[in-house]
Design brief:
Layout: H1 20-28, H2 32-43, E1 54-57, H3 67-74, E2 76-79, H4 83-94, H5 96-114, H6 123-135, E3 136-140, H7 144-151, H8 155-161, H9 163-169, E4 171-174, H10 177-182, E5 191-197, H11 208-223, E6 233-236, H12 249-252
Parallel strand pairs: 1-2, 3-5
Antiparallel strand pairs: 3-4, 5-6
Protein name: DUF3025 domain-containing protein
Organism: Herminiimonas glaciei
InterPro entries: DUF3025
Length: about 260
């Protein structure tokens, strides 16, 4: 009997494409966490220290240890029986190199702040890494003009006037597990933090899993250089072409959702 909280997931949703196959298989397993660890072992998943990655009960996280530091020190990912942690696990299976790099960045910042035995503020890098982990959307496109319009919040240009360009020149991969959780009950205002990968899309002859592996390696290499919150650009999830019905001009003229860029 699969966990009851998984029954609310509509796997036909287009934003779940890159986690659909493994997600459905885990959801149908008698014990999804046991199956998760079997797959992690078979894939040889590990953390940045080379320690085998295992998904363990939340109770194993010591009260005086940060979640990210525990993963770094032990390779153990505290996991609860809920949608949030279920999607987090799917992302580990789908984009492991990005997850490893994010954990390394987090762990390094935690270690720096603890050297003097003081509790320091999270800092911009940790904030950015958390936003990426929870809410990132990976958008691959070499169309610089379109990406510039996206950054300037020119929604009508991106999604109406140049819609065909977007569909041809862009690929969108959902990464943030909190974003996936929100989209179980979709509403128009759900917005992701877009990480734009300014490169040509993966080759057309690559399978979806092959595309994800390509994106995983590419973005992980980018994250070696760090990140800040300024690196993100907003993207309304139901505005992605083909991700919601009735995406006509009026749909994108809703300024309560598709907001103009703030003038500084």
């Amino acid at each position: 009997m699969s966990a009851s909280f998984l029954s609310g997931i509509d796997w036909s949703r287009p934003w779940l494409a890159n986690v659909r196959t493994v997600g459905q298989e885990l959801a149908q397993a008698g014990d999804w966490q046991q199956e998760l660890n079997r797959r992690a072992t078979a894939m040889g998943l590990h953390n940045h220290r080379g320690l085998p990655l295992r998904f363990v009960p939340q109770a194993e996280l010591p009260t005086d240890t940060a979640y990210e530091a525990h993963i770094s020190q032990t390779g153990h990912v505290p996991t609860r029986d809920n949608l949030h942690d279920f999607f987090n696990a799917l992302v580990w299976l789908t984009f492991p190199q990005i997850k490893i790099q994010l954990n390394l960045l987090q762990a390094q910042e935690i270690e720096r702040s603890s050297v003097a035995n003081v509790i320091a503020p999270r800092g911009k890098l940790r904030d950015a890494a958390t936003i990426f982990d929870e809410n990132a959307v990976l958008l691959v496109s070499a169309n610089q003009g379109l990406m510039s319009a996206l950054r300037e919040h020119e929604w009508e240009e991106v999604f109406v006037t140049r819609r065909a360009e977007f569909e041809q020149d862009c690929r969108v991969y959902l990464f943030g597990h909190a974003l996936m959780e929100k989209l179980v009950q979709p509403y128009k205002a759900i917005t992701g933090h877009t990480w734009i990968v300014a490169q040509a899309c993966p080759p057309d002859d690559l399978s979806l899993s092959g595309q994800c592996a390509w994106v995983d390696q590419t973005v992980a290499q980018q994250l070696v250089h760090g990140l800040t919150t300024a690196d993100f650009s907003p993207l309304q999830m139901l505005g992605v072409p083909g991700w919601w019905p009735d995406q006509d001009k009026d749909f994108y003229c809703d300024t309560s959702v598709f907001r103009a860029k703030r003038k500084h």
